[in-house]
Design brief:
The complex is a heterodimer.
Chain A lengths: L23 E8 L5 H11 L5 H13 L12 H4 L3 H6 L6 E6 L4 E6 L6 H10 L3 E7 L6 H12 L4 E7 L8 H18 L4 E5 L23 H7 L3 H8 L3 E3 L2 E3 L20 E5 L4 E3 L3 E5 L4 E9 L2 E3 L1 E3 L3 E6 L10 E4 L7 E10 L5 E2 L2 E7 L2 E14 L6 E2 L3 E2 L4 E12 L12 E5 L6 E10 L4
Parallel strand pairs in A: 1-3, 1-4, 4-5, 5-6
Antiparallel strand pairs in A: 2-3, 7-16, 8-9, 9-15, 10-14, 11-12, 11-16, 12-13, 12-15, 17-23, 17-25, 18-22, 19-20, 19-24, 20-21, 20-23, 24-25
Chain B lengths: L21 H19 L3 E4 L4 H14 L8 E5 L5 H14 L3 E5 H6 L16 H10 L4 E3 L16 E4 L27 E4 L7 H11 L10 E8 L2 E4 L12 E7 L12 E2 L5 H10 L4 H5 L9 H7 L4
The chains are: A alpha+beta, B alpha/beta.
Chain lengths: 454, 314
């Protein structure tokens, strides 16, 4: 079957590069070294016709120049995703690479995360924007320490959909009992981590079993193929728009003061135009709804939802809009406009989980900047209360955090914010930790509890 | 792209009320990024060549700040090898939108000896020095570009906000992680940030958006008859800087351009796609990437783009 990899791709007539009315689904891949992740990504891209002829030519040429005799039809699929010279020369993946493909049902953004170097850093980067994460494991090796760590990170980041692809099932002779054993080990770990609705799929990236189409080699597997899952799982925004309260962090105030681009006859209508621009991060809003603004706690009514000259009745995540309000409140960048009565009291202290991403370690007492939504403020980390053991998820004593550690700490803010936990609201409860001098992103933070150590 | 078009984006009939289409999501993401950069930086500028990606960028900026004007100038690095119809389009567009245009001229750098023409005649790699000069002269701390991750393997690794040192260099091994939709634009004196709001768009997304929003483009993106000659498997236009060699035969062909760079290194493709919808269908069925099909400068080596980006190119 490997010879199909050399076919010149041509898009299916009904796909035309993806559906015009379709949605955009973001997913990330993660796996340990030699789990076959590059082959799986190559297979997905190839079988969904996302690899164009000149890219395939270049990869085929380089593969044969390097004497790649791999079973995937002589193509080293890693060359497709390893974009940097150093990566190709050293045969390693350094950084997250983004790939784009579409089927007749959906368009996809794939964040291909390297497995072995700085895994936490790259996993966190890929997972924070993902609707789903595909974790690869080698069917012959089962659940490894690395797998467990990947799943721990995904559990802490509350990734919506986790798919475990049990790869190289062909090398086990498509043995159902062997797959059941691995799947049971996976379930034991995910249950322990509190990850529910984890999908486990037996695949062979090399042969193509259950990647795009369900395989005749695994008649005992009745679930969907990997691609079928990716095509049908609901988007995070679709789920959260329904259950979370409306939030819009204000990016800037639109106040053109007469310098407008509308036709001259209409210009007088915009002389006193004032609207608050931002992206809806959760929930829905209708014209006429009452909103609360923080800081200040003022309440007013939404008189208009503008989108570049179009007046909307309704706004929902992740739309970028501009809101007109009935009252002149003091609202600047960094403010949050929220459904009335849904914002908690502003607090100056929180307990956070920190995914430490910088090679410079964190020590208690560090002064940093934190960015919540559109608000960047000064903060101190007075106390590091522990570090996650990624094998057990238990919090162990620690007095500092090193790169790739996931720690627990208290954070004291220079000004009070209406904090929500990450469990309550993913966007409101997430923040960046930034170096106050050089501006480096030091950590990804999530609010575990508002109002101090628990 | 007239501003009256901005309000005319048709909503897809019958779409579920709480579901955005792919184009809506990409548009919203781009506008969010553009607004973040304008809010957090002092002196942003948009690289504007008149090419389709930069035209889409300007359209998005106009939507982000409606009913106000685009609150930053645009910058064109003019190699002196541009298609004349693209330069005319560039000037008409900035006029209509009331946007300030700055031009950094490669020719000026060659005339006064700071740059020299290359043996292969392409001026695309020569843009870096005038670009960095214009960024420094304008004291720009943020530079918007229309680069997309689907264009090239090196660009697939690029961040949406990409920090550059005082030499404009990209350090791909030391990029800031980008988490959730929180963008970190902090930088120190001498550094600047390149911002790529349409990173996640594909060539097809760009064309579908141009169709949906009825955005005007330079005419050479659509099929037209042109005198061309074949070189390195690409149809090259006849022009002052792209003359055929004696053994190359000039023919009249119906062609269009998928990318618009220098006349000296951009090839046309044979095409009958004379309307935006025809182009959308053609792009959807293409089996070649746009740069592979049309850009001599990217065929130099497998890492051609990475090397130029490290040096400060986009």
């Amino acid at each position: 079957m490997t010879d199909t990899l050399l076919d010149t791709p041509s898009p299916p007539a009904d796909a035309l590069g993806g559906p015009l009315q379709g949605t955009l689904f973001r997913f990330a891949t993660a796996g340990s070294v030699d789990d076959g992740k590059s082959t799986l990504v190559g297979r997905l891209l190839h079988d969904s016709k996302a690899i164009l002829a000149d890219q395939l030519d270049a990869v085929t040429r380089t593969s044969s120049e390097r004497g790649f005799g791999g079973a995937a039809g002589g193509i080293d699929f890693a060359l497709l995703t390893d974009g940097l010279r150093a990566e190709r020369e050293q045969g390693i993946t350094i950084d997250v690479a983004y790939r784009y493909f579409a089927t007749a049902r959906r368009s996809f953004i794939l964040a291909d995360c390297p497995g072995h170097v700085q895994y936490t850093r790259n996993m966190v980067t890929g997972a924070t924007t993902a609707d789903a994460v595909v974790v690869l494991i080698d069917a012959r090796k089962g659940v490894l320490e690395q797998t467990r760590r990947h799943l721990s990170v995904l559990a802490l980041l509350r990734v919506q959909h986790v798919i475990v692809a049990v790869n190289k099932i062909d090398l086990l002779g498509y043995d159902e009992a062997a797959f059941i054993d691995v799947a049971a080990d996976v379930r034991a770990v995910t249950t322990e981590l509190g990850l529910d609705a984890v999908h486990v799929v037996p695949v062979s990236a090399l042969v193509g079993d259950n990647v795009v189409d369900r395989s005749p080699h695994t008649p005992w597997y009745e679930g969907p193929s990997l691609l079928e899952l990716l095509e049908t799982l609901p988007l995070v925004d679709e789920i959260e728009s329904e259950i979370e309260a409306f939030r819009l962090p204000v990016q800037l105030v639109l106040r053109p003061q007469g310098s407008v681009v509308v036709p001259e006859a209409d210009a007088h209508r915009y002389r006193d135009y004032r609207a608050y621009a931002g992206q809806v991060t959760s929930g829905t809003l209708r014209v006429g709804d009452t909103v609360t603004v923080s800081p200040g706690g003022g309440t007013t009514v939404v008189t208009g939802i503008d989108f570049a000259g179009e007046e909307l009745d309704l706004a929902f995540a992740p739309q970028s809009v501009a809101l007109r309000l009935a009252d002149d409140l003091d609202i600047a960048r960094g403010a949050v406009i929220a459904a009335v009565g849904t914002l908690p009291e502003p607090v100056k202290e929180l307990t956070a989980a920190l995914f430490w991403l910088d090679p410079r370690p964190l020590a208690a007492g560090a002064r940093v900047l934190v960015k919540f939504g559109t608000s960047t403020i000064q903060a101190i980390v007075p106390e590091i209360t522990g570090r996650r053991n990624l094998d057990t998820l238990a919090i162990e004593a620690a007095d500092g955090l090193e790169v790739n550690d996931i720690g627990q700490a208290t954070v004291r803010l220079a000004s009070a914010l209406p904090l929500e936990t990450y469990a309550q609201n993913r966007r409101s409860g997430a923040f960046l930790v930034i170096h106050p001098q050089d501006g480096a992103t030091l950590a990804a933070g999530i609010v575990v509890a508002a109002g101090g150590a628990s | 792209m007239s501003i009256t078009n901005l309000a005319a984006a048709p909503r897809p009939a019958g779409a579920a009320p709480h579901r955005l289409t792919q184009l809506d999501v990409l548009e919203s993401e781009a506008i969010h990024i553009i607004r973040e950069v304008v809010a957090e930086f002092e002196r942003p500028v948009l690289l504007f060549s008149g090419g389709k990606d930069s035209v889409v960028m300007l359209h998005l900026a106009a939507k982000a700040f409606w009913p106000g004007r685009v609150p930053f100038p645009v910058l064109h690095v003019d190699t002196g090898h541009n298609f004349p119809e693209v330069i005319a389009f560039r000037d008409a567009t900035v006029d209509r939108l009331g946007v300030t245009l700055h031009v950094a001229s490669v020719q000026d750098y060659i005339d006064d000896g700071r740059l020299h023409d290359r043996a292969d005649g392409t001026r695309n790699p020569l843009q870096t020095l005038p670009l960095l000069g214009a960024i420094a002269a304008g004291r720009h701390d943020a530079v918007f570009g229309g680069a997309r991750r689907d264009e090239d393997k090196a660009r697939a690794k690029e961040r949406i906000l990409s920090l550059r040192d005082e030499f404009g260099q990209w350090d791909p091994r030391n990029q800031r992680p980008e988490l959730w939709n929180l963008y970190n634009g902090r930088h120190t004196v001498g550094q600047h940030v390149r911002a790529f709001p349409i990173s996640n768009w594909t060539e097809l997304d760009v064309w579908r958006y141009i169709e949906r929003e009825a955005i005007e483009l330079p005419p050479l993106y659509y099929a037209h008859d042109r005198e061309v000659y074949l070189r390195d498997g690409m149809w090259r236009a006849i022009g002052p800087v792209s003359a055929p060699l004696p053994h190359e035969t000039v023919e009249l062909r119906t062609v269009r351009y998928r990318t618009v760079g220098d006349m000296s290194c951009t090839g046309a493709v044979e095409s009958d796609a004379a309307s935006v919808h025809a182009v959308v269908l053609e792009v959807a069925q293409s089996t070649l990437t746009e740069r592979g099909a049309t850009r001599a400068d990217d065929r130099i080596s497998e890492a051609a783009m990475e090397d130029r980006k490290r040096d400060g190119y986009f």
